Amino acid sequence: MSFSEELNGLMDCPTPLVRRFMALLEPVDDARLEAMAQESRRLTRLHFGRTIRLFAPIYLSNECINNCKYCGFSRDNPIIRTTLTVDEVVQEARYLHGLGLRSILLVAGEHPKFVSDGYMQE
Ligand code: SF4
């Protein structure tokens, strides 16, 4: 099932977590917005402390079967599609490590060539 199908399915029968998330997207008055901001701040400090953590992205692939309007990887966006090989990913990671970066964010679209038990299906 694709990401968009999964997402649409969530709306058919939303779980309590999804209902809570939907409630967060509803318009609220200033007092409620401030309360949400305070709660967000409290939870951020609780889980992460007073830190800023930087992630360096490695773009594994910009191939995607979905068509999210806000995304440059969208299926109908006429761009050159690229998927890194495992060796290229390792090379990129080593380069970032050499720069002193220790937190890497792996970025990719959703495509059938990617499988859950490995990077790419041959
Ligand atoms: S990569 Fe972009 S188009 Fe593909 S699922 Fe993610 S947000 Fe949507």
Features:
mainly alpha; 2 domains; flat; binds iron/sulfur cluster
Task: Please summarize what this structure is.
The chain is 43% helix and 9% strand. By secondary structure, the chain is mainly alpha-helical. Strands 1-2 form a two-stranded parallel ribbon.
Shape: flat
Count structural domains: 2
Strand order of the largest sheet: 1-2
Broad structural category? mainly alpha
User: What order do the SSEs take from the amino end to the carboxyl end, as H and E?
Assistant: HHHEHE
Bound small-molecule species: iron/sulfur cluster
Major sheet, described briefly? 2 strands, parallel
Could you tell me the mean pLDDT? 89
Radius of gyration: 19 Å
Cα-to-Cα separation, first versus last residue: 20 Å
**What is the percentage of strand-forming residues?**
5-15%
Number of helices: 4
How helical, in percent, are the residues?
40-55%
Secondary structure: number of strands: 2
Q: Runs with pLDDT <50, length 5+? A: none
